[in-house]
């Protein structure tokens, strides 16, 4: 399986821009996000793009690459957000080391946090 680091920045930039143009794959609040046919068509477009550098690319391959890019982006984004919320001085806030961090910033509004559930009792009341 090809490693994204082995692909040129120009290719990865083009791939991310193409991904951004296919909101059925990433815009959770879009009605198209639930449309399986549209999603399949969108993945086929991305597979075609990736076959330029990896002839054996298929849908699963592309999905793994996207997941990997999003996971790395999310970790850096959470690190920055945590620093901002902590009241850290501006000069101490970490700068993203991921070169394509800004290219994936369109995902910022798509990140949702899960509410946690606890069974810890506080006083005489259960918290849920």
From TrEMBL:
- Cite the MADF domain residue spans from the record: 14-112
InterPro entries this protein is in?
Answer: MADF-dom (IPR006578)
Tell me where the signal peptide lies.
none
Q: Which domain of life is it from?
A: Eukaryota
The entry's protein name is MADF domain-containing protein
Q: Which organism is it from?
A: Parnassius mnemosyne (clouded apollo)
